[in-house]
Specification:
This protein is of the alpha+beta class. The longest helix has 12 residues.
Length: 257
């Protein structure tokens, strides 16, 4: 059974989904830990100077892709919130919601924004698709509560470098284990006569070829207002003219550093 399929029913029936005794119940259990050795739900990672929410983002990841380390680096900036797997019912959601005294998914999201958005009003979270899907099913107003919302899709290579799809920038960013950007790949180069995309247009998922000599990137070509975003990206207007959705191939043998 795919991870998360059997879990979503339990997630919707019970709130909190797990660890109803609060953060103290994490003792002896598996947790999402930080490099500092503390559970990511620890109050010491809270921000206590929150104003109005200006922007939120989701690091859309797959298991064991290096996303946790990447999110730790984002937290260290002090300007990008504290992105962890807040919707993970096994390791985070129950402990965090209990600590914050939440009685519903709506309470939980509001409390997360209040405690984990950085001073500049930016809130971030990391999520696998099936966790995000289950939470959104339980709380249909999720996207509205997080608006304006952006998604970042990432995967890691054999060198533990993280590759992030900057979808609104139409490029792929390579980040090394220290959190330093070492390369950028791709751009939007227009449309062909039959409406196919040249280059990247709102890249949405990443996959390496065997040997990691090519990177395959799906072009979602999403017109942001259709997703409820109040502002459009610089190339969003072109998405309305796309007739053929394709997969871009980036030759990594020619990448620059």
């Amino acid at each position: 059974m795919r991870e998360g399929v059997g879990r979503s029913t339990q997630f919707r029936r019970h709130w909190p989904p797990m660890y109803g005794d609060g953060a103290d119940s994490l003792a002896g259990k598996v947790t999402v830990a930080t490099p500092a050795g503390l559970p990511a739900t620890d109050a010491r990672f809270d921000y206590n100077h929150f104003g109005a929410l200006r922007k939120s983002y989701v690091v859309a990841s797959s298991p064991r892709c290096g996303g946790t380390h990447f999110c730790w680096r984002l937290w260290q900036t002090g300007r990008l919130g504290a992105p962890i797997e807040y919707f993970n019912p096994s390791f985070v959601c129950g402990a965090m919601s209990s600590r914050l005294g939440c009685a519903s998914p709506a309470d939980y999201v509001a409390a997360l924004i209040a405690h984990r958005a950085s001073k500049n009003g930016v809130f971030g979270l990391k999520s696998h698709f099936y966790h995000f899907e289950a939470f959104a099913t339980d709380y249909p107003e999720l996207l509205e509560a997080l608006a304006p919302l952006s998604f970042m899709v990432c995967c890691s290579d054999a060198n533990d470098n993280l590759w992030v799809a900057a979808n609104q920038g139409d490029e792929i960013v390579e980040v090394d284990p220290t959190g330093t950007v070492v390369a950028k790949q791709g751009d939007f180069d227009g449309l062909t006569s039959d409406g196919s995309i040249l280059g990247l247009l709102f890249p949405a998922s990443l996959a390496f070829s065997p040997g990691e000599q090519q990177l395959y990137v799906t072009n979602l070509a999403l017109y942001l207002p259709y997703a409820g975003a109040p502002e459009i990206a610089v190339d969003s207007g072109w998405t309305l003219h796309v007739k053929q959705y394709n997969i871009a191939v980036i030759d990594l043998r020619r990448r620059w550093h």
